[in-house]
Amino acid sequence: MPDAQIDPQSDPQSDPHPSPLLESRFVQIKERLTGRFTALHALAVETGPEAARSVAADAIASVHAPFLFVVVGEVKAGKSSLVNALLGADICAVAPEPCTDVIQKIVYGPAPATRMVSSHLREISLPVEILKDIAIVDTPGTNTLVAQHQEITEAFIPQSDLALFVFPATNPHTRSAWEFFDFVHEAWRKKAVFVLQQKDRASEEELTVNTAKVVEYARGRSLAEPAVFAVSARKAQEDPEGSGMAALLGFIRAHVTGGRRAREKMESCITTGLTVLDLVDGSLTAQSETLRHDRREEATITDYLTLARKSCQSDVEWIRARTAEAYARHADALARDFEDGLSLVQMLRMTAYSVVGKKEKMQQWLDGIFATFKQKLDADVETVSAQGASRLRESVGKVMETLAGQLREEAAARSREAAVTTMTRTRLESLDQARQQVLALLDDAALDERLTPRTLQYMGEQAVAGGIITAMGAIIAAATHAAVIDVTGGLISLAGAVLALNILVIRRRASIKKFRAALEQGRERLQQEVEEQLTRQLTAIFDDIHLAFTPFFNNLARREDTLGRLDARSRELRQALLAERDELPRFE
């Protein structure tokens, strides 16, 4: 059989009629399975381990794989004409002389091409539609040097769907052809069909005798029911029945391309698809279990943050209580100083000073006792706030270190899944992102700034000053009014001084009561400010911690949705493949 060529006079792309070699119902099954397996491969890429993706790709290749016909025979046995007649296309040019001593595999390709696969194998691609469904392996003549017999019998015949042993109708006795058949393992001999080609060159008597001889030779080689056909490929188009080609095509259609062999091929592909779905479902089950585990982890993290938030709130309460205690202690001292300052002797002295031009004496006194109060309170508040900030810093830090450790352990426990599927990769990425964000919060200098002693010191100062300054403002106004009266001179001045003194004495108790009320209001305001400010900061900190877990929590929601959709697709594909298998034609 010479090098295969395209007939330049024909259009290899045109295929107006289905090949008589193919069974239409199996062509339709193949088209449906192609769509099923394409969807299956996409599903395996999304969900399955590498094995599932690989097997799914093989399934697509299998359903697209053409039937493989191996043609074996002597030179000038009519192999090229037989192949052209079988395929209904001029695949092989018929040459008067043999021109190949290598194995040729003829397959479909978008354009004519030839490549040497090995020193013994040439692959020829041709844009002929029938080659999408049937590939041909053409062997060198058996009566030539058969150094490649091992490659043919071991590599191609076991893979083949049909092995055509072609003999001249006038001489099926050649020892080389039958010796070559002996190389074929007994298990693969059932694929053989024996063709007496060029029957138009033999008489009816010769055909009868030679057909019987082929049956005899085949049975002697453990083939109980050999299939033998006498054909004339040259007359196939003008007389399909008389040429014997119709019988050969019918046999191939019934037993290979449209019979039990085709069913087995489709069934094998479907079984492969179901195997892929088993791998996919196993992966989905494992990922669903991982999702359930992660949901429990999400609940654990949320509960832990809630408990940690309550624990830190107790630190806020500690700071509030200690600050209130310091305030109460110094406010009591301030109130006593204020009461002492409003005694008759002290007021007379300050009024006398005011009369001689020292109006600011009362203001200085008030400023002095407030400055002492503020200085001592600031010192205590700074100490309390430093201790409280340290407690909060330690509590919050412990929370974040614990959570970062949990995330690290969670990622390490399933690190082997990282390269398995897209979902497991994104899961680990979200865990790592959450851990990095928690660690960033742990190292964030802003945490210290949020809980710095200066914050509490500022809050204490503002809370105290507002109430006390208002109360002292009234006292200063009264003293200023008395000083104005004193400067009227003479008795008026003295009377004014006494009057002013009497006013202050008369109002002493009311002033002290008002002052203490202002101090109490300051204490309440201080406690409220401390609690509100620190609670607000803690809320922001824990919001940031929770936000750090957003990639992980969002990933859970996406995975849950994705797993639901993938599981539905898997169940739908399984039902479709099982239905395809049930609908395959049955053969007795």
UniProtKB/TrEMBL annotation:
Keywords carried by this UniProt record: Membrane, Transmembrane, Transmembrane helix
Record field: compositional bias (Low complexity): 1-13
A Pfam family it matches: Dynamin_N
CDD domains: DLP_2
Location of the Dynamin N-terminal domain: 70-118, 122-197
Coiled-coil positions: none
Transmembrane stretches, start-end: 463-484, 490-506
Recorded superkingdom: Bacteria
Region (Disordered): 1-20
Protein name according to UniProt: Putative GTP-binding protein HSR1-related protein
